[in-house]
Amino acid sequence: MDTHFDQSTDNVASVESTDPPPRMTKQQILTLLSMASVNFSSMICYSILGPFFPNEAVKKGASQTIVGLIFGCYAVSNLIGSLILGRYIVQIGAKFMLVTGLFVSSFCTILFGLLDRVPAGNAFITLCFVVRSIDAVGFAAAMTSTFAMTAKIFPNNVATVLGSLEMFTGLGLILGPPVGGWFYQSFGYEVPFMLLGCFLFIMVPFNIYVLPTIEADPSQDSFFRLLSHVKIVLICYVIFTLSAGLGFLDATLSLFAMEEFGLSPGYVGLILLGLSLPYCLASPLLGYFTDKYPATRSWFMVIGGIATATGFCLLGPLPLLHIQRRLWLMILMLGVIGFSLGMTAIPTFPEIIAHAYDHGFDEGLSTLGMVSGLFGAVWSLGMFYGPVVGGLITQYLCFEWAAAVQGGLAFLAAFLLAVHYICKPPQQQSILEDSQHRDESTPLLIE
Q: What span, in angstroms and rounded, lies between the C-alpha atoms of 214 and 394?
């Protein structure tokens, strides 16, 4: 089953109509399921490490800083892979890129599960870096192509569809920590990686069968032209602060919860539900709302950034506040961070796309690939900064101050973005309003 989408779909005009949108075909439904499976399987394999790997790595001779670097190297490789693959997605082929990325990730996940048999010390640490780096390139290939294909097939409902797909991303984040922690406690280090690696491998033939082939022409645009726009740079900084905060929590929260509250890896996994569950539930609603009212996207990012900053400052909590540590407060702040992450993250991708199209970028797969690659690269940069710098601050100061630094980054992003939108020329607001009316009259899918 192989459906072709060509460049002509980019130029289909919106027509005012009161008729309801056409029902999705079987091929379109299967494509959505395919993309949802990629989001779910990729994120569950990523999030499984949080509850137990930092502790396991410490037993193998790694310091808190080295643990942060192991998490961080994943982000660096993902950054490089996202930029290269996003730039050449047309030449490589979106479908081929996605399927190959899934295969690489499945192999590396299984291989990572065998590292407990490696002797402690430099051998274990080196192999952790190598396997995680290769896995990151596979992840970059899968996610870059998924984002680009989603925006290509659903051009006027990007936030709605991405918000719905992020529900599966959130589900992967939800199930990864508790499932990983439970399997680790019950069966040891290897079993969680073996099961999830095999699950990823099963996704390969499924996606080969159901994914459409998208044909497009290469574009002459570049990342440098994208980054010449102040609005895009500010949105990229917002994305950076979000991923830095998540990376920081991945590398440090489990050890802090175990030491401060005496929790087991299984309970740490359950606590992380406080972060991922609000994100999972809120994303589809936030995506639909920001697609229906595009002018709200900007202030969703600002308000979400302020809420994220508040959550991180109270997570420890910040020593200057003289608030006693409480488990319920930590779980509550994780919920605030999870919801505010959805408020801030969901509008970023469609905002960059809309701004690029408004400023003369080709409305095709090449531009979507670059935007997707830029998004993945900036996200990965934050995922490197968060564990590494957060790990260093935690090691030499404490978790509370490290969390406060992450909150400060989020507040700065919200402040800069608010200043930009306040100073924005009024003509740009009319562009957003025109986009709103056009989107509301366009069917969900363009065939």
A: 46
DSSP assigned state of 17: -
Res. 34: pLDDT tops 60: yes
DSSP string covering 199-249: HHHHHHHHHHHHPPEE-----S--HHHHTTSHHHHHHHHHHHHHHHHHHHH
Length of the chain as a residue count:
447
Q: Give the tokens for residue 356.
A: 């690029």
Q: What is the pTM of this model?
A: 0.73
In this prediction, residue 328 carries a pLDDT of 81
Distance CA 210, CA 3 (A): 9
One-letter identity of residue 176: G
SS (H, E, C) 23-58: CCCHHHHHHHHHHHHHHHHHHHHHHCCCCCHHHHHH
d(CA 254, CA 358): 44
Closest CA to 297 of 234, 245, 361: 234
Distance, in Å, from the CA atom of 96 to the CA atom of 73, rounded to the nearest integer, reads 25
Instruction: Dump pLDDT digits (tens) for 277-289.
Output: 788 788 888 888 8
**Residue 192 and residue 179 in contact, taking contact as beta carbons nearer than 8 Å:** yes
Give percent of the chain above pLDDT 90. Answer: 4
- Cα 318 to Cα 177, 219, 256, 405, distances in angstroms: 26, 48, 14, 10
In three-state form (DSSP H/G/I as H, E/B as E, the rest C), the secondary structure along 342-380 is HHHHCCHHHHHHHHHHHCCCCCCHHHHHHHHHHHHHHHH
* Ramachandran sector of residue 249 (left: φ over 0; alpha: ψ -120 to 50; beta: rest): alpha
Residue 386 contacts residue 251 (beta carbons within 8 Å)? yes
Dihedral pair phi/psi, residue 213, rounded to 5°: -95, 125
**Residue 228, token pair as written in the block:** 């010449």
Chain-centroid distance, C-alpha 142: 12
Strand partners, 128: none
pLDDT single digits (tens) 217-247: 566 666 777 778 888 899 999 999 988 888 8
pLDDT at 329 over 80: yes
Residues whose CB is less than 8 angstroms from the CB of residue 202 and which lie 6 or more positions away in sequence, other chains included? none
Q: CA geometry: angle at 114 spanning 109 and 117, to 5°?
A: 160
Between these two residues, 406 and 4, which has the higher pLDDT value? 406
133: enclosing H helix or E strand? helix 122-153
Question: How many other β-carbons are positioned within 10 Å of the β-carbon of residue 205?
Answer: 11
User: 317: cis peptide before it, omega within 30°?
Assistant: yes
| Three-class SS state of 442 | coil
pLDDT of 160 strictly over 70: yes
3-state secondary structure of 19: coil
